[in-house]
Design brief:
By secondary structure, this protein is of the alpha/beta class. It contains 18 helices and 19 strands.
Length: 582
Amino acid sequence: MRYVPFMKKRCEILRPDTDTVKQLSKVLKCSPVFASILVNRGMTSPENIFDFLNPSINLLRPPFCIKDINIAVQRIYNAIKDNEKILIFGDYDVDGVTATTILYQFFCFVGIDVSYYIPHRLTEGYDLQVTHIREQALANRINLIITVDCGSNSHEAVQAANKAGIDVIITDHHKISNPPPPALAIINPNQRDCSAGFEHLAGVGVAFYLLISLRKHLRDRHFWHNRAEPNLKEFVDLVALGTIADQVPLTFENRIFSVIGTKVIQGSKRTGIQALVEVSGLKLQAITAEDLVFRLSPRLNAAGRMGHAKEAVELLTTIHPDTAEQKAGLLNQMNVNRRHIEKEIIDEICQHINNNPHVLKKSALVFSSPKWHLGVLGIVASRLVEKYHRPVVLISTKGKEGKGSARSIPGFNLYEGLQACSKDLESFGGHPAAAGLKIKYEKIKSFEQHFEKTVQKMTGPNDFLPRIAIDYVLDFDHISDSLIDELESLKPHGPGNPAPIFMAKNVDVLSSKIVGGNHRQMQLRQTSGRTGKTFRAIHFNAKTDPPLKNSFEQIIFRLDWNRWNGKKTKQIMIEDTEAFAI
């Protein structure tokens, strides 16, 4: 047995070098708390910290050393010059949709004959396939295919394109097969012989860098001499959306894209974005990166999950307000449906686990059903990983075939785990933390057994115990407006740049009430505090877990502004009250 169900989380108090913290605090004129957080994130150079806190498009590193990018740019230039037909082949998630959109709009601006195609998630599945060469490329006399956010494992499709005399340029960021597909050019910073240092980019980031290189190539050949040159900053709104939605590390270029792109959205003239923001119940000028993650991205993703991703591309490319309003409303309703179906599947699986608690003796959870909607399985798997903290594979079966989504915990490389079980699978692809797969129905039981053994072999006991890294043990006396302003400068948070986590000890609960149906709002005061400061706190989804106490030995929390009706107040957001220190 690798994991004891519902065991308390373990928290580790980070202890940065005190001399480095003091020096940074002095040089940056910031609080020791803020300096400690920077050191905990591996930032000790004042110059690098300045760049991190002040993201600028000018800080983007040049892309010209990315493998094959010059080959791709020259081929696209020839296509433009010779008026060839280009097909952009995308993926159905937000990353793929935004990457498709920026390439499509750039080529439309140039004036070339360009079209795009995104496969249907349920009926066609992921990636460029041989049928697409026949039915989309040959049928429409395409000369050049450019993939975005896919293609790194499309051997047969690329071979079919080559045989038909159609060149293929792959732009992607997923794990690439060895040997790679025989494409004319593969722009994937994660391929083995590419040392450019852009492994963190999302698919839309790779596509954006292709546009940077292409625009310069065209400039060097005086293409823009008699026409306006496109301002690529106008595309950064979509780069931010795709980057944040794809959960890539929000460091280096991705941080720049996220911060600058959010600002571009705040002043957006893009009709589709305006409609999407409105249907999400937000105000354009007040959009935050968190809104991109939790409000806009789910609605864009709903198109590919519940219908067809082309609806999302049409929303982002339209210039007509009526069309934008109609498309945004459609995506919003799809998202409502998605949430309903997602809840049904989660409730079903959790009920099954409650009725069969022995399931939790396993190191991995593998479930299948013919009733499940494939489009939501990735989200459901993520929710189950959060709840049970172990790798999860969910498979939707139809006849003799099954398609599924998998999600993992930090201590287990999912891609390598699936690779070890590849004999049971028809195909698979993805990342260390998330993947998709195809499997024959009769192989599911065998896969479940092999996957369980693989997870056990590749993990240790501590990998199954949720870990919270504490940045600072913070007394309430030291919580101030200036500290929260400092913390704000670290946003947006996400992979690679987690929100700062604090611990406070001996905290009294002065009052408590339930808000929003399932959230507990409290007024807190620290017993040992000299100033007697009290703070409003919110503990999400904590109506009965844990039971309310009059005091806590310790709380694990985040700090932020609570903005409401034009006012802002300091707020504690409780993460945990039961964790134990190690």
